[in-house]
Amino acid sequence: VYNAAPAWGVTVGDALGVPDPVLTQHQHQHQGQTFSFLGIRVSSPLSLVVNGKRPPGSALAPPCLALSNPSAPP
């Protein structure tokens, strides 16, 4: 689950409700082999319903800022 906190997750046997899913077909080729699979995306793990309940706010991963300056000297 993208943007989920490391300490949060679902387990085998959990009932998962996915409102407003975006279904995407992925196709990748590597070393002569083609891999094809479907992916389901939602806007946030907080929009899911797990075992009839919404996840707590702590299920959302905190934001992380990454900066780079390619023109800066090493």
UniProtKB/TrEMBL annotation:
Q: Which InterPro entries match?
A: TTC5_OB (IPR032076), TTC5_OB_sf (IPR038645)
Question: Could you tell me which Pfam families the record lists for this protein?
Answer: TTC5_OB (PF16669)
Source taxon at top rank: Eukaryota
Gene encoding the protein: Ttc5
Please report the organism this UniProt entry assigns to the protein: Cnemophilus loriae (Loria's bird-of-paradise)
- Name of this protein: TTC5 protein
- Residue limits of the Tetratricopeptide repeat protein 5 OB fold domain? 1-61
